[in-house]
Amino acid sequence: MKKEDKALIIEKIKDTLKQYSVVYLAETTALNAERTVELRRAAFNAGIKMMVVKNTLLHKAFEQSDIDYSGLYGSLAGSTTLLLSDTGNAPAKLIKGFRKKKETIPAFKAAYVEETVFVGEENLEALVNLKSKNELIADVVALLQSPAKNVISALQSGGGKLHGILETLSKKEEK
């Protein structure tokens, strides 16, 4: 491959990396053609961009990027499939869901999620359970709303009870 072609590919990888906030590295070489097509289709349906890249070109794209991907360098061995997303746990769920037939492929190598690097297969379950920024914000809002809802509910039910008591007392006085 010519040096100019490599430079163009590195630039294309770098531009693609800029579009996504989450980067996963996986190993998919042991998949046959049919399973690879299934994985690509599942990734597309989940909004995940899947690319098979040469490690040296990906390493250079990482180095030229504005983001520090240095924690992923050690995982650039063997064949590498890049899974890119804007949701932190989407590629992890894809990998885990794809393995439902008791396969170990695709093998998880490493991930860069929310400025944190996860390396090794043992981190896959943690990544599956990782909540996105929007999910965390929704949880915080729900927690903040809960006490206010309880107070309003208590006031509303208390108001009904108070009204009933006053009505009963007024009927007793009339007799």
Structural class: alpha+beta
User: What is the ordering of alpha helices and beta strands?
Assistant: HEHEHEHEEHH
Shape: elongated
Give the class-level CATH name of the largest domain. Alpha Beta
Fraction of residues in β-strands: 15-25%
Question: How is this structure best described in words?
Answer:
It is a single chain. With 175 residues, this protein is of the alpha+beta class. The protein folds into two domains: 3-130, Alpha-Beta Plaits; 131-175. Helix content is 54%, strand content 16%. It has helices at residues 3-18, 33-45, 55-64, 90-98, 124-128, 133-174; strands spanning 22-27, 49-53, 80-85, 107-113, 116-119. It has a five-stranded antiparallel beta sheet with strand order 2-3-1-4-5. A hairpin with a 2-residue loop joins β4 (107-113) and β5 (116-119). The longest helix is centred in the last third of the chain and has 42 residues, at 133-174. The model has no long low-confidence stretch (mean pLDDT 86).
Which secondary structure elements does this structure contain, and how are they paired or packed?
Layout: H1 3-18, E1 22-27, H2 33-45, E2 49-53, H3 55-64, E3 80-85, H4 90-98, E4 107-113, E5 116-119, H5 124-128, H6 133-174
Antiparallel strand pairs: 1-3, 1-4, 2-3, 4-5
